[in-house]
Every structure is written in structure tokens, then in C-alpha cells.
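2024-03-11 09:14:02 DEBUG pipeline.ingest accepted 1 chain
2024-03-11 09:14:02 DEBUG pipeline.ingest length=256
2024-03-11 09:14:03 DEBUG pipeline.predict start
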Amino acid sequence: MSPDTVEFLRREDGERIAYMQRGGKPPGIVWLGGFKSEMIGNKARALDTWSAHQGHAFLRFDYFGHGQSSGDFRKGTIARWRNDALAMIDALTEGPQILVGSSMGAWIALLCAIERNQRAKALLLIAPATDFTEALLWQKLTDDARRSINEQGEWLAASAYDSNPYPITRALIEDGRKHLLLDRGALRRLSLPVRVLQGMRDPDVPWAHAVRLAENMEGDVRLVLIREGDHRLSTPGDLRLIERELEALISEVFSA
């Protein structure tokens, strides 16, 4: 299969998850995108190119209701997207994997690492929006927005990255509460190397939130704060930093 070909994994409910895959040596790298993002974004494409040059297997995909995958975005939840990621890892990868998660994808990566601790050998988390439905969204909503979610089932949020607003549903908020990780002990049971990259000018994920995540973990955890970095971390310099961190992580974990 060509690495530029979009393929589809059919889920048990009939939905189809779009993906692009490149074969290569271990460890494989799995890209986990953010809320409303697609697998053709700048960071995913840059890491695909980097993986090709390094000879590593690389997998990227669109969650249910995202990009080229089927499904109604309004019906998406953290559990649904985590299960999509687990299905992709189980069906399409072999051997040890490094999970690279951006924004919401970092939360998904952490949840997958807990579920597949024998497969996930390291994490690279970019602007990690762990527990974002509660800590970064619900707690900051106005009373009117909360009332709309509770009574009408959704609220339309303006997006800095899209001309169209996107729905925040009651199902997303309620399901998110079932999968919160911060200050609950689950992260301390993860025993794998973790690297966190966080922009200090990120309007969506405050850098203190990344510090809180690092404080919730034990072992080999390193946090890099980028003074001028925004949420996307997609400038040429940002992309080079991501690639260097991934290369160093692979060297440190798999050189023995």
C-alpha cells in the first residue's frame, strides 16, 4: 500500500475510520491528532516524512466524525475516539509503538498507553489537553453555555481555527468525566518515558496545565516549554524540535 493512499478500517458498528500507513522498522510511530483535526495536518505530514527518512513505520488516522472517516461529529466522545485509536493500534501495528499525541490526542495517547502498556513504549505529547472537557472547557464556560449544554444537549463554540463554530455536546462532557486522569493516580502507574512539548503562548492549553500533567507522572518525564510557542506548534522551528525530540526518544529507549 502506498503511504499516500487513504484506506479504511471498518469498525464493528459499520463506521469506517480513514487512515494512512507507512511500513518500516520498529518502533512504529502512531500519530493521534487533536479535537476537530485531521490526519493531513502539518505536524502529521511532517512526521510522516521524517519517519520515511528514518525508515520507521508510521500510522495516522482520522477519528470517528473527523476528516475522511465516517460518523457524525456530534456523536463523538472521548471513549469513542480512544476506542478508535485502540482499534487502529491493534489491527494495523506490530511490535513496540511510540504514541505521539497532539492536544486532545495527548489525552487519547495516555488512555491508550494505560490500556496497551505492553505495546506503548514511549509517549511524545504536544500541547497536551489532558482532561480538556472538564479542566479547560466546562470550568470556563459561561452559565448560559452550560445551560445550553444541559438543557438543549449542545452549545456552539467559536473556533480560532475554523470559520464555522463547533458543537460541544452534553454527551462529550459527561463521557469526558468518566475518563479524567489528572490527580486521580492512574498516570503514576505508567512506567514509560514521556516527553511533553508546550508553548507558553498557547491560548487553548495554558503551560501550567502541562506542568500539572508532568507533576502527575513519575519516572522518566521531561517537559520542554517553548517561550514563543502557540497551540499548533507548526512553525518550521517547532516541527524540527518535535522531530529532534522524537529522534532522541527513540535513541534513548531503543538503543539498548
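2024-03-11 09:14:41 DEBUG pipeline.report Residues 7-130+182-254 form a domain with the Rossmann fold fold (CATH 3.40.50.1820).
2024-03-11 09:14:41 DEBUG pipeline.predict end
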